[in-house]
Description:
heterotrimer
Amino acid sequence: MAIVKDKVDAVIVGMGWTGAIMAKELTDAGLHVVVLERGPDRDTQPDFSYPRVVDELEGSIHRKYLQSLSKETVTIRHGVNDTAVPYRQMGSFKPGTGVGGAGSHWSGCHFRALPEDFLIRSNMEQRYGKKFIPEGMTIQDFPVTYEELEPHFDHFEYVCGTSGKAGVINGQQSEGGNPFEGSRSREFPLAPNPNYLGAELFYKAAREQGYHPYPIPASNASAPYVNPYGCQMGPCNFCGFCSDYGCLNYSKASPNVCIMPVLRQRKGFELRTLSQVLKVNLDSDKKRATGVTYLDAHGHECEQPADLVVLCAFSLFNVHLMLLSGIGTPYDPVSKSGTIGRNYSYQNLNRVSMFFDDTVQANGFIGIGGGGTVFDDLNGNQLDNAKAGFVGGGVIWARQPGNGPVRGIATAPGVPNWGSDWKKGIKEAFRHSFYYEVQGSCMAYDDAYLSLDPTYKDGYGRPLLQMTFDWHGNEIKGSQFLVGKAIEMCKSLSPLSMKGDAKKDGEHYNVTQYQSTHTCGGAIMGNDPTTSALNRYLQSWDVPNVFAPGANAFPQNNGYNPTGMVGALTYWTAKAIREMYLKNPGPLVHA
Amino acid sequence: MSEDQQSPSRRRLIKNLFFVPIGVASAAASVQVLQTAVAKPDDANPNPYRPSFFNADEWRFIVSACDRLIPHDDHGPGAVELGVPEFLDRHMQTPYASGDIWYMQGPFVEAAPEFGYQGRLALRDILRLGIKAIDAYCARQFAGKKFSDLDVTQQETILKAAESGRLKLDEISEKMFFNQFLGEVRNGYFSDPKYGGNKGMGSWKMIGYPGMRGDYIDWVEVRDKPYPIGPVDLAGRRG
Amino acid sequence: MLGPALKRSFLLAVILAALVFGGLLTYALQLTETPDIGNNAGNGVGNSVAGNAATANNDAAPQSLVDAGRYVAVAADCAACHTTPDGKPFAGGLPLASPIGNIYSTNITPDKASGIGRYSLKDFDRAIRYGITPEGGTLYPAMPYPSYARMTDQDVRALYAYFMHEVAPVASANRSSDIHWPLSIRWPLAIWRKMYAPATAVVPVNLAKYPDPIVARGAYLVQSLGHCGSCHTPRAVTLQELSLDESQLTYLSGGPEIDGWVAVNLRGNDGAGLGRMSAPEIADLLRSARNTKSAVIGAPMADVVTHSMQNMTEADLQAMAAYLKTLPASVDNSTHYVPNSDTANALKAGKESGRGAQLYVDNCAACHRSNGEGSAKVFPSIAGNPTVLAGNPVSLIRLVLAGSELPSTKTAPSNLGMPGFAWRLSDSEAAQLVNFIRQSWGNSAPATSAEEVAKVRKTLVVAENNAS
């Protein structure tokens, strides 16, 4: 028999970025909110305290701060007719867990989206004709515009202490920023961080090619900062342990640092950790959620009734919960009907590493997760897609989140993996090399989607989420194009040697190598309930008292990191709930 | 973790890790061969590490393989002198090596290499099985000699063949085993000394990694000179 | 066999002792007369916190008086001792360590059986300002009645109204102390009280002494309700505070060790005191436990900020700060800070003068920086820090070994924390590190020793044991 808890106004699944934003916004509106987080509570002290946290074996091999795959993972297959096998060891993407979620172990790159990213389908069609978008590429326009999200982009950046330089303020060009960005209402809250060597040289190399480099907007504070909630951040000291680790000195933006201190003080807020939500409960019509069922820390099954259910469990697990709970119709790739699981997309990353002599003090152990230098000349409307041969775009950047020997030392071409020559190679490379990366967009396809696996189960007896995804020719072309441009640019730095790893024709998605945790789509927002799971307010078309903020809402992924957009969309959703939904619960959009 | 409370005096640079169990045939011959690579127990190191996970045969393989993969040379210390075999023995006894963070449920099916290891062995068993399989292969190829009995060139050949999957072993994918083993050897070579390897921060000194310092704001914009401060380990000692 | 002279002397000594004992006992047992403050009698109305709200008797109190009393209770921080972390408000039971054993705070809810529900206003006043129980006994001076003695009558009336009419009664029997006989004999306490907190000393703070009304208000709060001297003023061997106001240089010049922390010097010393802090910066500390350069360390003062000062009015915080700024340096002014960039230059260039510098680079610089200045409102400056420059290094040593965490306050919710380094530093290393920071960036304070560190480290283990 489940233990039935007292009903609350809203139950939120997950205490990461979207969960923390929603909890803050809903408690602002006077709601009584319960947040159920499957992992443990986490805070800078004691969980990320200096110096213990910078232990590579614990963080990068034992993956202490990431989600363990033993109880919950996904299965993956390339094609619709393949058999999916479990993602057994962490590789390609790294979901988080605990209070803060992936928001505690992310790097801090904090972009918005280009205005044209919101209108990619109509933009491509207008520029190149309808036939330019291949059959099977199911990209869609967003049902919101950049202008509608601008205040929320701005607010989230101020919550995070994002350190950068604006390029366009109220329509006016501003020196030092991205000249191609959507107009901002004001400057960033903090100025950019200092440049490590690779970032500094990037300006020179990029300008020589005629590109317009600017500082990557980094939610790694460049100075002491108090955000609009009164929460305090400290300046980044370039410790080199952003990625996969919690921040040791309050400088990387995270739910823990930027929102939790205020939330924890609130009487209307209750956090239950070690609480695994198993499903959303629906009434008999399946048109209304009555709450959620979860396992508490002792393993007792509990029911949390609520008027409002907000899924904040990370993109993949939001979709998983919707499928498990019978919210909406699962997507079928054969009939191409159904909405839950469709339009899964990822991120297209590759890298060019450069090796220099020992006069070049590159010091790979110096790192800042979100900082560096980037340009948008091959992104959005700046790219001639017809010439480049692919739909989408991407950025090229200098980034150095920090490296260490356990995490892996890149060596120059020709250096073997072991033996005396390897030792020589790592000595020469470790403090005298750096890399530039290309981060490309990833379109959505009718054969890339999420569903429930028929065979494998999680630690709670539920079917695992099944991911069907592979690289399409479009992304392979994009990778080759962007890496080619990057290599051209890198030549001007005259490294002793260089190696780039552009995707090869016919290459398959390799889950064993870390690429990115930007898993997007699966429960996308749209204007049409037959081709999207959520309306423009991230409200479920099928069950109006369920909202699902997260990157699951992206119909496809652009060349930027998604967190800035995810935060903005969550504030946008929260505003709709506060100003419209609470006054008149029900569908906010009538299709 | 209990390691935190160990006194620094217990962490000694252990030069010799080779332990010869009594009664094992060809022990004398093994010692003979290994003396080219590894120092004997002596008064300076009266207490070489005694493995509690690996047995004597496995241990011999590990010490020899470590010595090949990361040898002592002019570039810097080797894996054996830095205690990597000790690291391996201790690491295999952690929950991580038992598959704690891996998804270990069946069914276990063959899959393309892009999907990673799909077998049911945890890391500790992969290493065990792989060591046994390679030793058996050597015995077949070299008239009964195990890997540790071979000379340096022969050992290198075997390792290269394993690395490129040319041994064609039945019991286990030698390529997968090799990658896992090499990864562990590197982990032991480069992780904090508290885990048993990287004694005296020898590897960090070799490559110029500051260890557990995690503070570089003063050095981000320094271009004209190398970072001058030596490494510090978790226990707070300087290298 | 004792000779007759010796026998006589012995008898004389016994008689003398009996006479002295009898005299002391008589002196102790003499009842102390105290004035009645019922109705509107009393003085200091203009500047009391409770203002002018009238009260006739126990049973009817105007809401304004209850509200005023609630604020008095916040400013006097009754909860600090009379509410346990998991307990109901004011139900008592908090152990307070004394040199002779633990005593437990009493239930001051208006419960008639186990609390103060049967107290008249006079009983209440006699307890708070005179330290006398309704039965005529004396309270242990853990209750800071020598400070509360300076409250106005009106504030006492307001406090009474609050406790009787708003605080919820809780049935919770008082726990007797852990003090063993003969030290548990109470009547000698009366002697202490009459010598060091006589009834004649119960006089509200004379505000006319302070020309500036803001300073006057600050003086009132600091000396009476705030009872800051209970922790921050040194005590004689007989345990009374050496001074209760600014008339002596010992006032607030740094107190004894409490729960392992030594209360800082609040006077104008430029090294170990508040000499280089402005009044608004001091008010920041009171409001949120942190200012641009400095922070409150240790749980005892963090609790005061959390339960008391963050809930006081801005005007009152600024007033207390203004009063503190009027206090000149104390006699022991031996530690100093004269800004000097040598240490910063050396560390920034990677030059380490010795093991102390190495330890700083490896443990502290990540937050406190090579220039020792930390980051504004995030990590305190070590350069010129009063705790770093305190003559007695116990707090600093404790901080290095055990760390500290800021409280989450209304205006500054981030509970920024410093980890402890006891696990990483030997006694000798901790001493070298402490000595390094006390002599760097222009800091000048005497060295400590490994032995001193060892003593503090022992108390950490005790604290951990007590916490479980």
